[in-house]
Amino acid sequence: SQTIHQWPATLVQPVGSPLSLECTVEGTSNPNLYWYRQAAGRGLQLLFYSVGIGQISSEVPQNLSASRPQDRQFILSSKKLLLSDSGFYLCAWSTHRGYNSPLHFGNGTRLTVT
Amino acid sequence: DAKTTQPPSMDCAEGRAANLPCNHSTISGNEYVYWYRQIHSQGPQYIIHGLKNNETNEMASLIITEDRKSSTLILPHATLRDTAVYYCIVRVSRDDKIIFGKGTRLHILP
After folding, report:
1. Taking CA B24 as the corner, what is the angle to CA B18 and CA B25, rounded to the nearest 5 degrees?
2. What's the CA gap between A63 and A19, in Å, rounded?
3. φ, ψ at B80 (rounded to 5°)
4. Which helix (H) or strand (E) holds A114?
5. Cβ-based contacts of B30 with chain A (< 8 Å)
6. What is the rounded distance in angstroms from the CA atom of residue A102 to the CA atom of residue A106?
7. A7 touches chain B (CB under 8 A)
8. What order of strands is seen across the sheet that includes strand A64-70?
9. Rounded-to-10 torsion of CA B22, A35, B41, A108
10. Backbone φ/ψ region at B58: left (φ over 0), alpha (ψ -120 to 50), beta
11. How far, in Å, CA of B8 to CA of B90, rounded?
12. Of the partner residues B30, B41, B43, the one whose CB lies closest to the CB of residue A99
């Protein structure tokens, strides 16, 4: 069966520090991968999605970036965090070009920038 | 922008059926309707999806109107654990981008 791993579960980082959040998927190949962010009390905002290695689509201009160095690995990064980067970050996957397949979410990383 | 419209909040008595509506009047072609829910501080959970026919699984039923412009998610016997934000999403064919709207906050009342 397929599983998605996301870590760390919680993170407290000072303003201006770098960020690296990692997400890996097991049990499937060539998945679509997604990063979402949820600010406190707000909805889910799509940040990045990827349909293959090295293929990243960015939805919201910001100081975050994403990379997909391996088929089932998706990394969210920042060189310098802002206070506004605080939030709940969720990684998700779905079958490649699987319009008839659901998104599967990880447990999320709660980031607090201080 | 999300292609769906949902009421911001709803109440339902425990033990009763919860009927959550969703309008997707611009739906077209082979676009699927998906429902997810998010319990506080957790990642969204897939509930059900459908294309044209009504669907049922162990969690819920999905009723899609004949013109496919709206749908209703039915939780047959709501419990307090069903309190969550429910998202209705149209999965656009040939587009891998998946956008969530604001959803419906469902309160189950004891």
Report:
1. 130
2. 11
3. -60, -30
4. none
5. 99
6. 13
7. no
8. A3-7, A19-26, A73-78, A64-70
9. 150
10. alpha
11. 18
12. B30
Residue A39: count of CB within 10 angstroms of its CB: 13
Q: A91-114 pLDDT, tens per residue? A: 999 987 667 788 999 999 999 999
How far apart, in Å, are the Cα atoms of A55 and each of A30, A38, A58? 12, 23, 10
pLDDT in tens, B89-101: 988 766 778 888 8
Angle, alpha carbons A6-A10-A16 (nearest 5°) = 105
Distance to chain A for B99, nearest Cα, Å: 6
Q: Is B5 within 8 Å of B23 (Cβ atoms)?
A: yes
Chain B residues inside the 8 Å CB shell of A111:
none
What is the per-residue pLDDT across A57-103, written as a single tens digit (0 to 9) for each?
998 867 899 999 999 999 999 999 999 999 999 999 998 766 778 89
Tokens of A113: 């920038």
Residue B2 has pLDDT above 70, yes or no: no
What the block records as the tokens of A10 is 């919680």
DSSP, res B5? B
- Tokens for B45, please give them: 């959970």
